[in-house]
Structure formats: structure tokens, C-alpha cells
Amino acid sequence: MTADGETTSSSRTLIDRERLGSGVRAWSQAIFHSRAGRRFLAHRGGVLSAIYIFVLLAMALLAPFVAPYSFETQNIDRLLQGPSAEHWFGTDALGRDVFSRVIYGARMSMAVGLLTALVSLIIGGVYGAISGWVGGWLDSVLMRLVDILDSIPSLVLLILVGVVFTAYQPFENPEIRALVGILLALSVVGWVSLARLVRGQVLQVREMQFVESAHAIGAPGSRILIRHIAPNILGPVVVMLTYQVPANILFESFLSFVGLGLQPPYASWGVLANDGWRAKSDPHLIFFPGAALFVTMLAFNFFGDALRDALDPKVARSR
Amino acid sequence: MSGKGLYILKRLAGAFVTLAVIATLTFTLLRVLPGGPFDTEKALPEEVKANIEARYGLDRPVLDQYLSFMGGILRGDLGESYKYVGRSVADIIGEALPVSMELGLMSLLVAYLVGIPLGVFAAARHNSAFDTGAMLIAVSGVALPSFMVGPLLVSIFSFGIPFAFLQGSLPPALWESPAHYILPVLTLGLRPAAILARMTRGAVLESIHQDFVRTARAKGVSERVVLFKHVLRNSLIPILSISGPLVAGLLSGSFIIEIIFAIPGIGKHLVQSVTNRDYPLILALTLVFSMMLVVANLVVDLLYGFVDPRVRPEKSGAGG
Questions:
Q1: Phi and psi of B188, rounded to 5°?
Q2: CB of B319 less than 8 A from some CB of A
Q3: Tens of pLDDT along A1-26?
């Protein structure tokens, strides 16, 4: 339990491992022994969700090794079979293994969900920080722009932008093409709410005394923003990003479902659901990709809730 | 009162600018979109294609097209569809929009009638089994993708899988009689109902421990009246604040639902018009969707004043 109590008798050959060990220890200290970390670990749903997300991510990354079959291997003798020991989620109308296709589909979902969050963190973070930090007329102009972007019904434009971006890009691989198209479309609108949040947070934190004292000892603005303000507004930002992930995953599957996203034979949960919907009389085809999406959405929501409660105890108590 | 009139005018002017920006943006995007409306699989002879494009004014300079498009909107003329030959866009939308609004209104009704009471009762029995159960349902409702719920309901109630006795009890698609309405309305209403339930529960929990509630109880007001009159009234602001986008989203129908159930609403046209590159129809649909959002948000902002007289619309309008 007490990491500081153990005395390590080290020989010189162990230096590297020791340094590595201290890094791991610092991280585990931060995760398991900080207040926020403990609060998060106390949230059972949050921990389960984190494990699920981690496993799903690993399966997505290692899909070719984890999936029992390839996403396009057909077995003509076994069309439209229900779940069995050989095909856990059954087979589709072309005799492909649905379980494998669901695993491959996770790649698209995770990539869209996580990468869009990253992009909106970068754009929204910088935009919001500049707006809140510089203030004045620049702030008014930047926020006016955000207001206009916010009042655009995202659906129609998202579809158009997605189609445009899918068409114009240098990539050849259809999976990457669809991913980049959807990614760019979601990035066009995704950063807006984040920019607003970051601006509000910066406005609040910049008035605090530790910022003033940093000013007083002559720290430049960029250093204050990165070293003093950023760590203090990280909590709400991370929480908002966590909630954006499932929304973006859902959007990707909607697009692929109506045929504007990824195209068959490639697998995304939306493409699979569309296959299932066309097959009509075989509900297992729509149940499994749908359930994968459902559990993933739940996991990100629970994870977000746990994170929010851990990082902002005030909210947790008043709930 | 004149303040309120001025406020509405200001908002409408703002909405006008927003709509103009959206129209311009969409127009530009469409010109960037690869493939034209008359690219068929078998290439048309050059002259034929040129003729068709001239017919729809596509041979003119882009700026010229843009100006006549914007001018047309101002006159209320949305142009002629490229794919439904001879039909005006206004005609198509006039036919499809009422269907979408019907679907949306019914789903909205379901959402409010289920979501709000569920949230109120869950909050009233905070931390009880009922509360946990209701919130479990609500959380699931938010996370369930509609393209899963719809087809599964269809396979249960129309195809009788796995309950054979239910086979044929409800029609699987189309929009013809009340029996046809049930499945799509339930599918579309589920998510907003779940969102409303969570929102209502949170808002009610905030106000349920306040003094006026204790006073009402002390006066001997029945629990139902306390909950639905005193508490709910004071919890309406957060419920209202999500209602704008919710209503706009539902009234314009959900394109997924309309595709799954083959409902002839505007959502179905949305995807088709993009695939068909039916420029005038896409533009008009974009504007219809935007208008819905703008109007819904304006109405919600005005309602704030009614629900809570302390909120002055002049203040709530300024975003950022």
C-alpha cells in the first residue's frame, strides 16, 4: 500500500528499470491515490466503463488478430445463420461472420469518436483560450462567430460537408476516406461548444490570485496560459470531450446507415445495421451491431459521469 | 411591452442574417460538391447535357446563379426540382413537411407525457428502486440507436419474431392510418422522452427541498398538487432550455426514422436529394430545417419570461 515506505536496495544495473518504475509509480500515484482518482475508482459504473472502453479500443486496434474471421470472408454454405459456437453473432446474407464485422466496425467508431474529440480539443481550446485571454473586441467578434455557427442546424450541413470532404482528399483507402470525411465534417462544428467552455473558464481563472502573482513575477502570457491556467480548467474540458465522443460515434453510424458514410463491404456499426435492416427477417443482424453501439454509448456516458463527479466534487454532492 | 416587441424584432433580424449565411454556405458547398445533378451512369451526349443545364440555368456564371437563387428565396420562389421533373420544390416540401410535422408532434407529445412524469416521480422517490429503475430506463433510452429500436420493434410487432402470436399486429412501414403511426412515433419519441426524464428529475431535485415546498406541504396541499404545481413549475427553466433544439429536431422529423419506416416526409428527401445532387431541393430543405430551429429557439426564449417572470428576454437572448 504505502509506496514511500518500501526501501529499494538497488544495484547499478537496475537503474533503468528503477527509473521506469518511478515513472509508473508516479502515474499510479496520480491515478489511484489522488482524491479525484479515489473518487473515480469509487464509481463502479465508471470503472467498468473505463475497462470496457479500454478493451474495445484494444480490440479495434488489433482487429486483424482478434477477429476470428476477416471482415469480408464469405462462407457460402452458411448464409444468414443465427448465433452459434462457430459464429458467435451469426452470419449475414453473404455468409460473413457478424462478430468479426462488429470488431472491425469498432475501429471506425473508436477512430471517429476519439479523433474528433482530439480535433475539437485543439481547435476549440486554442480559439476559446485566445478569446477569453485577449478579451475586448476580439473576444466579441470571435464569440459572435461562435453564435452564428451554433445556430446552424448541424445535420444538413454535416451531411453536405461530409460528402464534400469524402470526395476531395488524397487518400485511396476507402476506410480512411470515409473516416477523414466524417472527421472533418464533425470537426467543423464539434469545437464550438468547447471553445465557449474554454473561454468561460479562462475568464474565470485569469482573475484568480495565482495568475496575478505569476504576472507579478514577470511570466509571459503564453507561459501563464499553459502552466497556470490550462491545468486548472482541464477538468470540465475533459468531461465535455467525454460526452462528445458518443455523440460523434452515433453520427458516424447514422451516416453509414443511410449510405453516406462508409460503404460495404467495409464494416462500421452503421453499415452492419443497414445490412440487418435490409435482411428484415433476421433480427440478429441488427441486434448485435446495435447492441455494440448501445453498450459503447452507455460506457462513454458512465465514464463521463464518473469523471465529472471525480473532478468536480461540488456537482457530485448536489446531485 | 414595447421592450418585448423590440426584442422579437431584433431576434427576427438576427435570424434573417443567420438564414442568409446558411443559404450562402449551402450554395457554396453544393458548387464544391463533386458530380453534377445530370451526371448519369451512361454519359449523356455533350449537346444534350448542355441543353439540360441551360434549361436550369446551370450554364450561367456562378455568381449570377447565386444572386437569382437568393432573389428567388426573397420572392418565395424556391425553384424547380431537378429530379422530380416539372415539380416545384415548394410543392414537394408542401407535401412532405406536414407528414414530418405530424410524426414530430406525436412523438413530442409522447416524449413530454412520458418523460416529465417519469422524471418528477423519480425525483419524488429519490434513491428508491423506482428512481433507479426509471433512470436506468432513461439512460438506456438515450443510448439506444433508433436504427436498432425501429427495426427490432418491426420484427417483433410486424413479423412476429420471436413472438409468433404478435405477427402482423402492427404494419411495418408507411404512413396511412393510426396503426401505422404507433411504431415510428414510439421509436422517435423514445430518445427525447429519456432526455426529458433525466432533465426533469435533476431540475425537480433542485427545487424539491426549498422552503415554498415545505410551506405547501405544511398547508396540507396534496402531494400530487405539490409535485406537479409547485415543484414542477419551478423546475421548468432547464426543461425549457433543452426544448428548443428538441422540438426543432422532432418537427423536422428524423431522417433515420423516415427512411426505416418509408414515411414520405422531408427527412427522406434529405438523403435522396444529396445523393441526387438536386440542388434546389437541398437548399430549400436546409432552409426549412434552419427556420425550424430558429423559430423553436425564439419561442423557447419568449417562454422563459412566462415561466419565470424574473427572466427578462432581453438578457437571455445575448449569447456568449
A1: -75, -35
A2: yes
A3: 344 444 444 444 445 556 666 666 66
Q: Do B145 and A294 touch (CB under 8 A)?
A: yes
Q: Which of B34, B256, B282 faces A258 most closely, judged by CB atoms?
A: B256
pTM above 0.95, yes or no: no
Question: Helix B279-307 crosses helix B236-251 at what angle (to 10 degrees)?
Answer: 160
What are the pLDDT digits (tens) for B61-116? 778 778 877 777 777 777 777 777 777 888 888 888 888 888 888 888 998 899 88
Q: Name the grid cell of A56.
A: 474495445
- How many Å separate Cα A170 from the centre of its chain? 25
- Residue B88 is given by DSSP the state B
- Terminal-to-terminal C-alpha distance of chain B: 25
Q: Cα separations (Å) of A222 from A87, A133, A230, B134?
A: 56, 10, 11, 48
Average pLDDT over residues B145-153: 82
What is the Cα–Cα distance from A44 to A48, expressed in whole angstroms? 6
Whole-angstrom distance, CA of residue A146 vs CA of residue B232 = 33
One-letter amino acid at A270 equals G
A70-91 mean pLDDT: 71
Report yes or no for ipTM above 0.90: no
**Partner A contacted by B9 (CB < 8 A):** no
Distance CA B153, CA B176 (A): 18
Secondary structure letter of residue A259 according to DSSP: T
